[in-house]
Each structure stands twice: as C-alpha cells, then as structure tokens.
Amino acid sequence: MVRSPCHWQMARQSDLFALSNRYFLMSEVMKMAIDDGSTNVKVSWIENKVLKTIISPNSFRKDWKSAALRKDKKIYNYEIGNTKYTYDATSDKSLATTHVEYQYDDLNLLSVHHALLQTGVAPRDVAITVTLPITEFYNPDDCQRNEEKIEKKRRNLMRAISLNKGELFNIVSVEVMPESLPAALSRLIGSGCNEFTKTLVIDCGGTTLDMGIIVGEFDDVSDVYGNNEIGVSMVTDATRKALAAADSDSSYLVANEFIKRRHDMSFVRDVVNDESQIPKILEKMQNKIDELGSQVAHEAKKFAKNPNRVYLVGGGASLIFDAIKAAYPTLGERVELLDDAQSALAREICLYTTEEEEVYRESPVMAEVGDE
C-alpha cells in the first residue's frame, strides 16, 4: 500500500507540479498518467483503489497491415490526416522515435493512443497528464517553464486520429509535467532525510538524460539539467547495426528487447540468424552500454559533484547503475535503483494527481508485443 504524495504538504512545489482546476473538476472523466517515452509509453491509473501500470512499446510503420489470420490477434491500423500507420512489433521499417521532435509529431500521438488501448479499459473520455524532457519543459536560460513547447505538446495530443474498425479514447484534457524529478516523490517523502539533504535524481531514457537536485523531502528543487544527446538509443542503434550485419535486421522494439534479454542465450539465438556473429554482437552491445554509463557518470559528476544520495529511474537505469555507483563510491547503498525504475515516473504522477488517500499497487505489466 502506498499513500498519495498529494496528501503531504507540497505547496512549495506548486509551480513545478501545477495542474489546472479543470482537471480536478471532471470527476466523470477518467484520469491517466502517461510517461510517453520515445521507446516505451508507461501508463498508470487507479481502478478501485488499485494503482495499475502498463508498459507499451513503440513500434510503428507507415501503411496498414492486413487482417490477422488468428481471430485472437488484434490489428491496429491508424490514420492521422491522410497518412496511414500500423503497429508492427518486428518490422525493420519501423519509424524512429528516438529524437526530441517525437514529442510533438504523429508518432507521439500514435504511441499515446495505442498505449491507452493496451490498458484493458474500455475507450472513454480521459484526462491525461503527460511528460516532456527537462530540456523541453524548461527554458535553458532561466529554468522557467517553456510555455510554448508545453502548449505545443498539448495541441499535438488533442489532434484527430482514427482507428480502423475500432474505437479510441477521447482525450478531453492534457496536462504536462517534467520528466525525472516526480519519479522520486514517494521515495523521498517520509524518508526521514533532513532539510539539507541533497538528492540527485538521474533519469536515463531512450533519447534524453534528465537530472535534478532535490533538497530535503521535496522542500525545494535546487537545479535541473538535461541532455538530449545521451540516451539508450545509442545502445539500440549499435545493436540494430550489429544484428543487421548478422543477417538479422530488426525493429527498434526487437533491438531493445535484445538488450534487455542479452543474458538469455536461448532468446539471443532465436533473434540472430548467423549464430557465429553472436559473440561480436554481444561485445559491441556491451561496449555501447559501458560508453553510455561512462557518459552519464561524467555528466552527473559535472552537475552534482557530491550529493547525499542518488536515485536512478528510467528505462536505462539498470544499464548505468554500476557506472553511477563507481562514480559516487562513498555513497554506497545511498545510490539506489528505484523499484520498477522504467515506470516510476508514470506511477508517481498518477499518485500525485489522485484524490484517493490510499491505494494498492500492482506490478507493471508489459503489453503484448507479438505479431500474428
């Protein structure tokens, strides 16, 4: 059981976590928190006092897919304007989402609607809270909210989209929050740290690296930092190239799954056609993982030389954990990989926006990615 952070004194963070009054007035509208990352979209919502979370991988290509041979397999063919798209888990023609402009384009609109359909909730009116990388949410010169980009994100998700032979959720309201910092809410509040404790939160995602320094139990946000050139995509791209060289061209989704399950040799052999190339593929992938860890550690030390504790969140958190522990050797166990780090941000935003005092948390569920 977890308590919602909105029932603690959080007034001093009203600027960072401001949500419009209309959002709370729509009691008949379902609220969902969405961390719409470039690689996976994480959706959290509360149903009968249970906090539920699903993770929906992004893998879309242009044009429609033919009907499935098996009746139990759902085909997701979408249309935005005059452009047709389909969800395709394995196609090597899947469209790249690992760039910042993804936050404002068709693929973002597709990924959010597709993820909503994976929740198992019947389509209905929904008020959503989504995220933007710190580099997009704040102005670089004064660290104030970038209202132009926040509004651009809102407008993008309010655009029209249709699902062939299906019904979509009706998005009636879009609120935007920054990535990284909210993911540590539950862990920090009630943790017993003093008002001078500095906590570094590192969010390593598919496209961007976001960091922030929190003072006390979220009493203040001392500083924020973002880098849109460092992310797991550098590992994904290297893995796709290595797989292609082994006659095993893959989608971004398959490449990311390959990274995640790289120690499962049965899975590795299933993906790689030229098995003689497996050692070389794994070596190239590990080199990129090490490079990612080294880059994140370097940026973290520049940004926060001596924090009192470090929390790691985001899809790439487990890949960089060892490198960050080595970068802050005196902290020991105070360098933490948060539970279910990939979906932490969506869960915490959901808890923050709920009016429920107590909810019970279920483990996140990965949406089915297999094709027919």
From TrEMBL:
Plasmid segregation protein ParM/StbA N-terminal domain location: 30-186
Chain ranges passing through the membrane: none
Domain Plasmid segregation protein ParM C-terminal: residue ranges: 194-349
Gene3D superfamilies (alphabetical): 3.30.420.40
InterPro entries: ASKHA_NBD_ParM_R1-like, ATPase_NBD, ParM/StbA_N, ParM_C
Protein name stated in the entry: StbA family protein
Organism: Aeromonas taiwanensis
